[in-house]
Every structure is written in structure tokens, then in C-alpha cells.
């Protein structure tokens, strides 16, 4: 378990204090994939670097497995860092060494016996799906392959925690999904606690169990990934979710569409279309679907529909009241007679 208690981190630049973190309280459970999302300058990287002692808080306490980092000796901090792997946006590979030697570098730093290098390198190369590339140099690898080397190197010391600093930001969308699937597999197979920072909500949606949303050095919301999408509370979170769903109608469509235009959210097994069909039957109204999207977050359906309702005003009012009780959320976007 990783705990942050009342964490403040202050830097001084030109005699002016700059707060990277402000009174952060956060707990990351053992074995979960925990996402930290925020724009540049939100404090994500600073928070991540507190976990392995690369940064120290100005105020507050960081604990890993119940032990405060503030009271650790240099030797204890070294042991903590050996148990904590880290991968980076730009891979940080040694360009003059091939894949096997990049992994061997991490083994040497950890004090592994040289006689054990070949077997451990074979295990790690197989684990990340790079068989046959052991003698390739970084310049001969794709971005995704380079990140796989970075992951293998981070796992060389059998860490219990893996820190991912914008690990997919330099990758194309297809490669990003492949790396995320690899991280998910490693979490399940090895029981790794993975802490992943990103500014991309789709990355969070694909892999994270829980998420913290950061803005201007503060954690503004913490929730399961599903709850984050289905019931976002803070405006910053709502902006991320709206960006991910991309459910908006062009203004010309809004102006040209008669009736009451509503946005519906539905979750789980209850689909929006079946509920609308029941509303049509019950209240003798007409429904036109203007836009919609269904996604699966942590294997549970979550969808949004934008529809127009036409019919008598009394029946539409009754239908809206009924829909509000049946669906997750309902919002009237426009009402044109």
C-alpha cells in the first residue's frame, strides 16, 4: 500500500514559492492499477517521484507498506528503489547497448550475479514479448519495442511496484493499446501495483482500476474508473469525460431539429434504446436518435444517447419523468416547440 498524507511540495524559483502539490491525501492499494491524470503542471510527476524517494515532500508523509520514507536511511531508500521499477515516456535506453545488454545493466545495478544474467534476460525478454530481438540495438526497434525493453529493464529486480511516467505518450494509438494490454497482463500475472500518470483519459479508461484527477497541485477527485465516467463530480473530471465520449451535436443540427432534445446516460445491462422503446409504447411519443455511443469500462456497459422527443407536451413531460427514474442521468439540451 502507498499512502500520501497531507503532502505539500514547494519549490522556490527566483525567490518566489511555487507549489507543485497542495495538501494531497491519497491511498493506492496493493495490486491495483492506479491512474493519475492531469494536464501539464498539475503535479502528477512530482507525486510519482515521491513514491521512490526521488523527490521529498516539503510537508506531509509518504508511506510504502506502512513505512515512512522520511525516516529511511540511504541504504533503506536504495532497497525501496530496487523494489520499485520505473518506465518513461522516452524509454531512456542506452543507445550503444543492445536489448540484452540494456536489461543486463539493470541486473548489474541490482547486484545480481553475472552467472544468472542469461537466464533472467531470457525470462524478461519472453515476458514482454521480445524473443528474437535480444541482439537488436535501440535504433533498430520501433517505439513499442523500445518501451517493451524499458518494461523488461524495470522488472529486472522483481519489483512490487511499477511507476509509469507518461509511458505511452510517445506511441501511436495501436501501439499504445498493445503496451497497455501488456501492463494489464503483468499486473494480473505478477500481482504488480502499477501507478500510471497520463494526460490521456483513454489510457485511464483502458487499464486503470481507480483514478485520481489532479489540477494545480491538488487531487480534485478520486474514484473507480467506471464511477469516474458515469458520475464525474468535479468540472475538471467532467471535461475529461466529455472529451473521451465526444458526444456533441453540431449547432446546425440543433437548430434544425424540432421537439425536446435530451441527453441520456445509461449503465450496465439497461440499454438506452430498449428504455426508449418502452417510453414510446407507454406515452405515445416519437423518438429520433441523433447521436450515440456505447463503451465498456471495466467490462461494464456505459452509454450516451442524444435524442429528440416529439408529441404532446403533457405526454413528453410524463415520459421525461419516467425516463429519469429508469436511466442513469437525463439532461434537456434544447426545447423547441
Could you characterize what this model shows?
The protein has helices spanning 44-51, 74-82, 99-109, 117-127, 143-154, 173-190, 201-207, 225-230, 235-245, 251-256, 272-283, 313-326, and strands at residues 2-13, 16-28, 33-37, 59-64, 67-68, 84-88, 161-165, 193-198, 210-215, 218-224, 259-267, 286-297, 300-310, 329-336. It is of the alpha/beta class. It folds into two domains: 2-243, Rossmann fold (3-Layer(aba) Sandwich); 251-336, ACT domain (Alpha-Beta Plaits, 2-Layer Sandwich). Strands 6-7-8-3-9-10 form a six-stranded mixed beta sheet, with helices on both faces. Strands 2-1-4-5 form a four-stranded antiparallel beta sheet. A hairpin with a 2-residue loop joins strand 12 and strand 13 (300-310). Helix 3 (99-109) packs across helix 4, helix 5 runs parallel beside helix 6 and helix 11 (272-283) runs antiparallel to helix 12 (313-326). The longest helix is centred in the middle third of the chain and has 18 residues, at 173-190. It is elongated, with a radius of gyration of 24 Å. The mean pLDDT is 89. This is Methionine ABC transporter ATP-binding protein.
Core attributes:
single chain; 337 residues; alpha/beta; Rossmann fold; Alpha-Beta Plaits; 2 domains; four-stranded antiparallel β-sheet; 12 helices; 37% helix
SSE topology:
Layout: E1 2-13, E2 16-28, E3 33-37, H1 44-51, E4 59-64, E5 67-68, H2 74-82, E6 84-88, H3 99-109, H4 117-127, H5 143-154, E7 161-165, H6 173-190, E8 193-198, H7 201-207, E9 210-215, E10 218-224, H8 225-230, H9 235-245, H10 251-256, E11 259-267, H11 272-283, E12 286-297, E13 300-310, H12 313-326, E14 329-336
Parallel strand pairs: 3-8, 3-9, 6-7, 7-8
Antiparallel strand pairs: 1-2, 1-4, 4-5, 9-10, 11-13, 11-14, 12-13
Helix pairs in contact: 3-4, 3-5, 5-6, 11-12
GO molecular function, one term: ATP hydrolysis activity
Protein name: Methionine ABC transporter ATP-binding protein
Keywords: Amino-acid transport, ATP-binding, Cell membrane, Membrane, Nucleotide-binding, Translocase, Transport
Amino acid at each position: 500500500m502507498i499512502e500520501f498524507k497531507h503532502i505539500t511540495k514547494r519549490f522556490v524559483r527566483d525567490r518566489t514559492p511555487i507549489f507543485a502539490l497542495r495538501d494531497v491525501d491519497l491511498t493506492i492499494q496493493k495490486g491495483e492499477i492506479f491512474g493519475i491524470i492531469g494536464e501539464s503542471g498539475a503535479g502528477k510527476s512530482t507525486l510519482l517521484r515521491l513514491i521512490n524517494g526521488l523527490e521529498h515532500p516539503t510537508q506531509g508523509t509518504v508511506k510504502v507498506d506502512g513505512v515512512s520514507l522520511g525516516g529511511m536511511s540511504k541504504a533503506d531508500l536504495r532497497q525501496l528503489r530496487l523494489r520499485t521499477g520505473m518506465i518513461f515516456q522516452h524509454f531512456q535506453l542506452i543507445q550503444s547497448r543492445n536489448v540484452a545488454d540494456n536489461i543486463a545493466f539493470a541486473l548489474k545495478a541490482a547486484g545480481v550475479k553475472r552467472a544468472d544474467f542469461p537466464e533472467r534476460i531470457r525470462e524478461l525478454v519472453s515476458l514482454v514479448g521480445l524473443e528474437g530481438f535480444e541482439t537488436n540495438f535501440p535504433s533498430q526497434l520501433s517505439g513499442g519495442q523500445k518501451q517493451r525493453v524499458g518494461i523488461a529493464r524495470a522488472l529486472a529486480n522483481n519489483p512490487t511496484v511499477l511507476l509509469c511516467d507518461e509511458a505511452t505518450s510517445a506511441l501511436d494509438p495501436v501501439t499504445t493499446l498493445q503496451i497497455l494490454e501488456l501492463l494489464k497482463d503483468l499486473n494480473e500475472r505478477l500481482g504488480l501495483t502499477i501507478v500510471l500518470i497520463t494526460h490521456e483519459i483513454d489510457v485511464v479508461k483502458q487499464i486503470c482500476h481507480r483514478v485520481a484527477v489532479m489540477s494545480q497541485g491538488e487531487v480534485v477527485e478520486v474514484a473507480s474508473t467506471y464511477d469516474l465516467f458515469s458520475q464525474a463530480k468535479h468540472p475538471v473530471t467532467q471535461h475529461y469525460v466529455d472529451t473521451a465520449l465526444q458526444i456533441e451535436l453540431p449547432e446546425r443540427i440543433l437548430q434544425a431539429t424540432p421537439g425536446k432534445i435530451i441527453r441520456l446516460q445509461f449503465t450496465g445491462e439497461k440499454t438506452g434504446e430498449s428504455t426508449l422503446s418502452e417510453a414510446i409504447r407507454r406515452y405515445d411519443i416519437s423518438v429520433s436518435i441523433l447521436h450515440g455511443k456505447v463503451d465498456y469500462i471495466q467490462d461494464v456497459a456505459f452509454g450516451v444517447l442524444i435524442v429528440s422527443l416529439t408529441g404532446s407536451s403533457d405526454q413528453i413531460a410524463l415520459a421525461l419523468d419516467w425516463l429519469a427514474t429508469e436511466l442513469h442521468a437525463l439532461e434537456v439540451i434544447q426545447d423547441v416547440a
